[in-house]
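Quick question: what would this complex look like in 3D?
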Amino acid sequence: MVDRMEKRRVTIVATLRNSIGAVVIVGIALAALVVLSLLLSATPLKTLRYFFLGPLQNTYYFGNMLNMAIPLIFGGLGVSLAMRSGSFNLGGEGQLYSGAFVATISALALARWGSAGVVVALFLGACTGGLLAGLSGVLRMKWNTSELITSFLVSNAVVLVVSYLIAGPFMDPATNLIATRMIPESFRFTRILEPSNLSSALFAAVIAVLVVHLYLYKTKSGYELRLFGLNPRFAAYGGIRTKWYQVWPMFLSGAFYGLAGGMAIFGTYYACMKEFSTGMGWNGLAVALIARHRPAAVIPAALFFAYIESGARNAMLHSDVTFEIASIVQSVVFFLVTSAVLQKIGSVQRRSI
Amino acid sequence: MNPVAIPVLHSAVAIMTPLLLASMGGLFTELSGMLNIALEGLMLMGAFASIVFTHFTGNMVVGIALGVLASMLLAAILGTVTLHLKSNVFITALAANLFASGLTVVLSFKLFGNKGVVVFNDIGRLPRLDIPALAKIPVFGDIFIGHNIFVYLSWVLLALCAWVLYRTPFGFRLRATGIHEQAMVSLGMRPSRYRFIAFLVSGFTCALGGAMLTLNLGAFVPNITSGKGWIALVVIFLGQKKPIGLLFAALVFGFADAFSNYAQGAWNVPADFILAIPYVFTLVAMVLFSIYTSRKNRVE
């Protein structure tokens, strides 16, 4: 008993010390932000105040920040699944956008189905994203085509096609926006933190994290997926269906992106606007990388990203900097997040017994 | 020859040039054993910095030189973080892309108060090479003469690349780094040094490719590179990682692009579909190429 407690104490200390590297990286990114504000803003202190405190100043901004994290959580989970199996999914942008589009038009078509329609529409949206990503998986399995490049290319083409469909055949003539018609009231998720946009999709996101965690660590298929990702050859000798694990994780990954799109529509936007999701796919990828492909860590990583985004949005509204300052801060995180040197800071060396 | 084909081929030669330049630099990083997806960001950095410096210095050559420096600086950061902080090159290169697309917009807003298209009226046209004697040769003259200097510069650089990679000790060592890193270490050489130089080379050529885009247009458009860096990456694979292969692969894409521009004018196709053609075309080329190599490997 004492032994077990001692062991637990040691793991907690080790986890804390291992996360020093992450703290250093976040610290450098925030320092970069301070430097940027000093260089670019005429009123750097005001800019920084809105950037750091803006997202927390009232329920409206705070709720919107949490809401912003929802598609990032879904996207981050999707990327984590693919990464764990050794696949790269760079097509998040197209998978998310097309998933949102298909979910929207399904909702419009199934208007009379009510809550059953919500499930079906989200499912169809998820399948769309899944099939797009799955295609890259199939190409890799059959001819060893790099899924990293094909998923990116497919996504770029799909974004343009979806934009065409929104601006053309599916455009709502009643508004000035380039958008589809609004989905029926019965399809919209309830707002849970008025007056912000935060919707009950948040619960779905948390459940999704749990489901992916259980899948990866507590099921046979999840174990095989991770094993294949760690060492494909070993997995093959162990009798694991290696072909399946080149396609299935890609499909799942795209499906989560598609779901992210559907959730964004049903929870926040209510209509699929042209290019509404630009950047969400890449941010989902960033979230997965910061979380180092661990589902549980996707939540704090998504919150961090949403914080930076909404901070930048706040600073843009109330000060003299542009929103793109966020992508510079994000890029600093990207530069450093996989650094083996930084990760080693403070980490406990594993001693062999 | 068909009267439509000649203008299409002529513009294909111009369109392929930024791809060819970027893929040349990418070839160095690729042969040194790294997948460099930052070509896009390096091009964008060069594109923005070249036209902005040309605007402020009033001299195109100085502007391009400073643009090249800016891009090489980003490449140096990328190289340092990747090689010395031991990061995943894929992620750091993604960071370089994100950094370039963010920084160019932020700076454009700071300098010109505009996040959209910035038109520079004070910038002259790119010098063109017109050799009347050669231009008279039918077909050849119509297709290859009368382009801007970047087009011809890219051919000279391609020959230079081939020479450096296959005829100099540096080239041998660079390629050896990609083939067998440990062998290089055991010979007392530092792979990271060759890789760092490869990054700098890709910064150099990508900047030239980007500079051609903005200077030719006389304007900066946000994300003007629009996927060209990625297509350059595919050019490297399709060109079988050989300098001469790059030329043919780039021409294929230049042709696809030129054809889609032509199609937009000739048929009534929605603009979004036209913009999608290069990606679809690249995808099909990638798949066909991988089918070909997997067949070949099976036979061997």
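Answer marked as accepted. The first helix of chain B runs from residue 5 to 31.
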